Amino acid sequence: xxxxxxxxxxxxxxxxxxxxxxxxxxxxxxxxxxxxxxxxxxxxxxxxxxxxxxxxxxxxxxxxxxxxxxxxxxxxxxxxxxxxxxxxxxxxxxxxxxxxxxxxxxxxxxxxxxxxxxxxxxxxxxxxxxxxxxxxxxxxxxxxxxxxxxxxxxxxxxxxxxxxxxxxxxxxxxxxxxxxxxxxxxxxxxxxxxxxxxxxxxxxxxxxxxxxxxxxxxxxxxxxxxxxxxxxxxxxxxxxxxxxxxxxxxxxxxxxxxxxxxxxxxxxxxxxxxxxxxxxxxxxxxxxxxxxxxxxxxxxxxxxxxxxxxxxxxxxxxxxxxxxxxxxxxxxxxxxxxxxxxxxxxxxxxxxxxxxxxxxxxxxxxxxxxxxxxxxxxxxxxxxxxxxxxxxxxxxxxxxxxxxxxxxxxxxxxxxxxxxxxxxxxxxxxxxxxxxxxxxxxxxxxxxxxxxxxxxxxxxxxxxxxxxxxxxxxxxxxxxxxxxxxxxxxxxxxxxxxxxxxxxxxxxxxxxxxxxxxxxxxxxxxxxxxxxxxxxxxxxxxxxxxxxxxxxxxxxxxxxxxxxxxxxxxxxxxxxxxxxxxxxxxxxxxxxxxxxxxxxxxxxxxxxxxxxxxxxxxxxxxxxxxxxxxxxxxxxxxxxxxxxxxxxxxxxxxxxxxxxxxxxxxxxxxxxxxxxxxxxxxxxxxxxxxxxxxxxxxxxxxxxxxxxxxxxxxxxxxxxxxxxxxxxxxxxxxxxxxxxxxxxxxxxxxxxxxxxx
Length: 757
Description:
Layout: H1 2-29, E1 39-45, E2 60-66, E3 74-76, E4 83-86, E5 90-99, E6 104-113, E7 119-120, E8 126-127, E9 133-138, E10 152-153, E11 160-161, E12 168-176, E13 190-195, E14 201-212, E15 215-222, E16 233-235, E17 241-248, E18 257-261, E19 272-277, E20 280-285, H2 293-305, H3 308-311, E21 314-317, E22 323-328, E23 337-340, E24 347-351, E25 361-366, E26 369-374, H4 382-395, E27 403-409, E28 412-417, E29 426-430, E30 439-443, E31 447-452, E32 461-467, E33 478-483, E34 486-491, H5 499-511, E35 518-523, E36 526-531, E37 540-545, E38 548-550, E39 553-557, E40 566-570, E41 590-598, E42 603-612, E43 619-622, E44 628-634, E45 640-647, E46 652-657, E47 662-667, E48 669-672, E49 680-682, E50 686-688, E51 697-700, E52 708-711, E53 713-715, H6 721-754
Parallel strand pairs: 12-42, 12-43
Antiparallel strand pairs: 1-2, 3-53, 4-52, 5-6, 5-9, 5-48, 6-50, 7-8, 9-10, 9-47, 11-45, 12-44, 13-14, 14-15, 15-39, 16-38, 17-32, 18-22, 18-31, 19-20, 19-23, 21-22, 24-28, 24-30, 25-26, 25-29, 27-28, 32-36, 33-34, 33-37, 35-36, 39-40, 41-42, 45-46, 46-47, 48-51, 49-50
């Protein structure tokens, strides 16, 4: 029996290796099959009798060993509907039983697969190459929760995304704090496209106008709506007036003019005339032959105008034969001038009649101070007598400081006052002159008189008186002040509580415009206009007109620690519009303006979200010249057509539409088994549940141990070609060895048969 047992055992070995080769062949053939799970061979010995004394050969049996839980490589694809499982789990799929142009019916039995090469078929189902339809949960569009109680084939029938009317607009941006009040042209509006219930597009504009520091007006314009969020006209009381009355007349400045009279006899040789203002002075000296009166004036005028220090203050001119004028260069700027020198005061001339005999004497008395000369033995010639008298006068300490004597001509001498413009009393006594009598004559020197006194200018002052009603309803009242060809307009913004507020506003505008040539001071309900340059007149006129302005929503920004932050919204100026502002406006409260529009399909409520009060989350007011829009969005969409889909890692099936919106309609679950290797293999890389595999545990991707999904990818076969080739070589050798046992057993049996021969 041992030989036969060996033969039977070898035959079982041949059969087992044949089965193993079949498994290897199947694996190699499906090495590129999406989702294919390889089959290994498990060898089991067959035992007959085996103890300490006897062992009878039993043989071997080969059974398949499945690797259903072994992960294959994940490869990227270009198809958005392809998906691969990364981790544990299987797609739940269904097999169709009836499929025609009208309907598709499915087998009640559920199948499972790792082949994720799904594509959308003509009916909107996700079908893989094995012909299996992917199952999933429907997602509630209101709650976003999947219906886990119903697992059915996914069919994309949501090819049209119905429009959603706009219900909220969010504006995040900055209004320029440096904008002027009521700018011309106005700031560009911010526009946004909104949608009605039918998906039609319309434009809503936010128009911002600064009406005072930290105060803006907002108009919500929905041009093609039958309902107007902000409407009406604000008209004030038509009683405002402005009256202009002169208070102080303009007086121009007057330039000082002094007239100087020249010495009647001019200047004798060597005589001087000095003109002085402050530290600046000029002096003219008569040459040989002297100066006539006219020549003296011409020389002095030329010297004054040629001196830089004097020419910067005055101008000498208007020269006549006897006088000239000095005029201040700057009207209203006075000067003080003096004239000195030997030709500036009184001059007396004394003629000597002839020689003096010995003992003759002459006495000259100046302001009561006598000077006497007496001819010595031998007498004096006329020239000697003249020189002796000059010497006596100039050397006498009581007379010398008062006057100065000098030669006038051969027979005469001149006595000049030492004090500028000064005069003196002169008496002549000749005690004994035998040759004749003394003769004298007197002329006054230079003199001055203030012809035109310096005159300071007076600035023109006009007073503007305001009357009328002031208050919130007077928005748009215009107060105009014209000065010359320029004008300013103050437009009431409704924050004024008194005429003084209006006057202060007008004065501020005037004082910032230096080109007007006036300054303004507000005093109660009046304004004083004062010329900037005294002596320069101005012409002014004023007017006031009643204003009207379109309705608006009042937007207020804070100061101090809340500078630039939204602190208030008021609907007080929205006369007939339907927009409403929030009642709670404390720190952190939502700044939402609610309004209605109607585009022909009924009233549509929209919320304009401007952020939160006293924060920088929404609209702010900081520096800048234009409106800086950081985010301006709305939640409405127009009708959309299905474009493609996206598979998320958590199994969400997101449908994408050409209107830019994406919506999750399905969720793909994964099935897990306690023993996935015990699943029954079906055609097309599918499996079905068995008793040994256990029941399917269905959970969302990434939940309860299930793997995650990767879109635009597929899981390849988990077959390793190199490994299969190695196993094939081993199988071949094992097979050959078993056949060798059969051959050997056959030869041994032949020997047994040959024994009887």
